[in-house]
Write a structure and sequence with these properties.
One of its GO terms (molecular function) is 3-phosphoshikimate 1-carboxyvinyltransferase activity. By secondary structure, the protein is of the alpha/beta class. 28% of the residues lie in helices and 28% in strands. The structure holds shikimate-3-phosphate and phosphoenolpyruvate.
């Protein structure tokens, strides 16, 4: 359960060079999917490198509540004994997905076509987030749902006892919606088709193929992706090696770019092209990042990232079509942009408004408090860079139960003129439980408490 009763204020101070090796944890998206597909296979799935953050632990607990055996056998090593496609049993209590949009939306999809009923809730952040984007397509399978006004949690899903396969064009760029439909399609007889206009992370497609589902993706002449899944497969248990999370790597990487004299190595990070937008953008801004030892691990391309301090970063415009491949990285990119020269214009970012917080608003208000000029509209964030060492800092920023907002402002504090505090760093444990020791080991000065 991930609701934090007591806020944990934290402060980052201007730091000396960051040096060393940053072993960031396993990928959050892949970790959720490994547990869920493990629970939907028959037999024993072994997972290594699982992210042991609160979001993923909540998904592990949920899989137990639906009848799978899920056991931790070592650090990041988990064994799941699945119940098969359509084999979930009705949970005896409410499923609490904590802070995790991915957890709740994917699990809703996975149970939707099993003819059982489950009620979902989450923390104060998750209970504000829209679920209609998932319940709309699930209704096409024959699913009923009732939640709070505006389609918010707590919400009860009455699964379809006799589901029908569907064809659905996802109206917003969302891997969570795509994945919920695919997971629901697993227990619907016939072919389920998902069409996405803008490519989003493809971990579900890769992992479904790995577990033996019949799934194919065709790219149409207009660029849309048509994903076809045959229902009612018998999923075969797998050995899943989870690569390290590029969205977590983003924090030490951006910190090293901004703190003079830094030189760090971040090994084994996923370079899946559907997740690579931040690194591409940073390099276009002039960042010194090299990708060493490229290889494949667990069905995903990975590399070791070598990152050196890059003083003269330039503002840039990120195109709308790149937004999905770096959607969780815009908060920390806006911090890098504040320390660069010139304007950075981030386009096509309205999905940021429905994450753990309204991330455009949270970054804009916090950066302004630190002395940075911001412009924003519904779908765009513009940061006026103040150049190397030019951000005054000296403010306390509100994190709104959002781990990425907390970590982003702490990165800013490492390079700003005066310390930057966050009102609550507790949510960092949802995705990056070792953030504090990892950053301390590199030489970053991050302390508990406000200024
Ligand atoms: O499918 C996933 O694992 C995720 C998809 C993205 O959300 P959306 O599907 O809402 O874009 C992303 O922001 C989230 O952190 C993880
Ligand atoms: C948006 C995020 O996660 P989720 O949607 O799973 O809560 C995130 O981790 O940045």
């Amino acid at each position: 359960m991930s609701s934090h009763a007591t806020p944990v204020p934290m402060t980052a101070h201007r730091s000396g060079p960051l040096k060393g090796v940053a072993q960031v944890p396993g990928d959050k998206s892949i970790s959720h999917r490994a547990l869920i597909l493990g629970a939907m296979a028959i037999g024993e799935t072994r997972i290594t490198g699982l992210l042991e953050g609160e979001d993923v632990i909540d998904t592990a607990k949920a899989m137990r509540a639906f009848g799978a055996q899920v056991e931790r056998v070592g650090e990041g090593e988990w064994v799941v004994n699945g119940v098969g496609v359509g084999g979930f049993s009705e949970p005896a209590d409410v499923i609490d997905c904590g802070n995790s949009g991915t957890g709740v939306r994917l699990i809703m999809g996975a149970m939707a076509t099993t003819g059982i009923t489950a009620t979902f809730t989450g923390d104060g952040s998750l209970r504000k987030r829209p679920m209609k984007r998932v319940t709309d397509p699930l209704a096409l399978f024959g699913v009923q749902s009732v939640g709070r006004s505006g389609g918010r949690l707590p919400m009860t899903i009455v699964g379809a006892a006799e589901p029908v396969a569907v064809s659905y064009e996802v109206p917003v760029p969302s891997a969570q919606v795509k994945s919920a439909v695919l997971l629901a399609g697993l227990n619907a007889p016939g072919e389920t088709v998902v069409i996405e206009r803008e490519p989003t992370r493809d971990h579900s497609e890769r992992m479904l193929a790995g577990f033996g589902a019949q799934i194919s993706t065709e790219v149409r002449a207009d660029g849309a992706r048509v994903i076809r899944l045959q229902g009612r497969p018998e999923l075969k248990p797998q050995v899943v090696a989870v690569p390290r999370d590029p969205s977590s790597a983003a924090f030490p990487v951006c910190a090293a770019l901004l703190v003079p004299g830094s030189d760090i190595l971040v090994p084994g990070v996923s370079r899946n092209p559907t997740r690579d937008g931040l690194f591409l953008t940073l390099i276009e801004m002039g960042a010194d990042i090299t990708f060493e030892n490229p290889r494949e691990e667990g069905g995903e391309p990975v590399a070791d990232l070598r990152v050196r301090y890059s003083g003269a970063l330039k503002g840039i415009e990120t195109p709308e079509e790149r937004a999905a491949s770096m959607i969780d990285e815009f908060p920390v990119l806006s911090v890098v942009a504040a320390c660069a020269t010139g304007r950075t214009i981030m386009r096509g970012v309205k999905e940021l408004r429905v994450k753990e917080s309204d991330r455009i608003d949270a970054m804009a208000r916090g950066l302004e408090a630190c002395g940075v000029t911001i412009e924003e509209d519904e779908d765009t964030l513009i940061v006026h860079g103040m150049g190397e060492g030019g951000v005054p800092g000296g403010a306390t920023c509100a994190t709104h139960l959002d781990h990425r907002i907390a970590m982003s402002f702490l990165v800013l504090g490492l390079a700003a003129q005066s310390p930057v505090s966050v009102d609550d760093g507790a949510p960092i444990a949802t995705s990056f439980p070792v953030f504090e020791p990892l950053m301390a080991e590199l030489g970053a000065k991050i302390t508990r408490g406000g200024v």
